[in-house]
Amino acid sequence: MQLRTLGGTGMQVSPLCLGAMMFGAIGNRDHDECVRIIHRSIDAGINFIDTADGYSRGESEEIIGKAIKGRRERLVIATKFYATMSDDPNMRGASRRWVTRAVEDSLRRLGIDHIDLYQLHRWDDVTDLEETLFTLTDLVRQGKIRAFGCSSFPADRIVESHWIAEKRGTQRFRCNQPAYSIFNREIERFILPASQRHGMGTITFSPLDGGYLSGRYRKPEDMNGENRFAYFGRITGRGFDPYAEAVRRKLDLVAELSALADEAGISLAHMAIAFVIQHPGVTSAILGPRTLDQLEGLLGATDVRLSAETLDRIDALVPPGTSLNPINDMPSGTTKQALRRGDAL
């Protein structure tokens, strides 16, 4: 794979990043298979691995730690902080008190002496961003992390973070990690331009839109049973109805996109991933396989180059800057009701 520069860090990363959210209790509980997935991705040319302390309460980081022994030097290891890690209300968020503890815990679980990219998983409404930026800058100076970034920040918060860093003399976020797919193109309007303007890398997640663009689901009945849709329905408390109008709309579009992929002689999944990494503002797209077979089905996407005609036809189905998941990139805790009341300002 041809490597790309991650923002202004100088670090070279592969256009595909192995995401480890599905390693551990919430996904694949077989540690040995997870290790095989990591090794296969490295052998295929992926040098970038992304996880978070909140993925199965640290279990994902522990699995990565097992897998990268003897291979660490050629890898760029990224993890995130913010998630609730215990019943203690102070063991979460972006406070100096917690971040200085969380980084030590992640280093221990990963079995490494430094983290290449340490990311704030979500905007923290109760901690001044200045406090977090000073803390992260200190961690860079101590050699515990090499660079830091943010995740799911909207454009205005990205701009605010750079303003604070300039005024207060801290280092700044070097990358952002938003959701981006054919079905979720909202970041094209403001988030990608803001990141590019400030020299930030963009590491996108969910290029298959949580599985819709994998090619596996063609009708509502295909989505019954245990899968990611059911899992996220449970953890968000919103449930999941495969017969809902929004789901049917996506499945109708899947049929049209599948036909387009067939015409191009590629799989729907490869087309979806190629669409993401072909955007000039995207550094790397995170793949989140749960099994080795799933990984194998995605690896060839870097060999795909979509034609202008194919991109135009995708635009006709899902126009640039629009989204079928408009709530994805709102700040943490934001709801449509909060936006109406002004609570999100």
From TrEMBL:
<feature type="compositionally biased region" description="Polar residues">
    <location>
        <begin position="322"/>
        <end position="337"/>
    </location>
</feature>
<keyword id="KW-0560">Oxidoreductase</keyword>
<dbReference type="GO" id="GO:0016491">
    <property type="term" value="F:oxidoreductase activity"/>
</dbReference>
<protein>
    <submittedName>
        <fullName>Aldo/keto reductase</fullName>
    </submittedName>
</protein>
<dbReference type="InterPro" id="IPR020471">
    <property type="entry name" value="AKR"/>
</dbReference>
<feature type="domain" description="NADP-dependent oxidoreductase">
    <location>
        <begin position="15"/>
        <end position="317"/>
    </location>
</feature>
<dbReference type="Pfam" id="PF00248">
    <property type="entry name" value="Aldo_ket_red"/>
</dbReference>
<dbReference type="InterPro" id="IPR023210">
    <property type="entry name" value="NADP_OxRdtase_dom"/>
</dbReference>
<dbReference type="GO" id="GO:0005829">
    <property type="term" value="C:cytosol"/>
</dbReference>
<dbReference type="InterPro" id="IPR050523">
    <property type="entry name" value="AKR_Detox_Biosynth"/>
</dbReference>
<feature type="region of interest" description="Disordered">
    <location>
        <begin position="322"/>
        <end position="345"/>
    </location>
</feature>
<dbReference type="InterPro" id="IPR036812">
    <property type="entry name" value="NAD(P)_OxRdtase_dom_sf"/>
</dbReference>
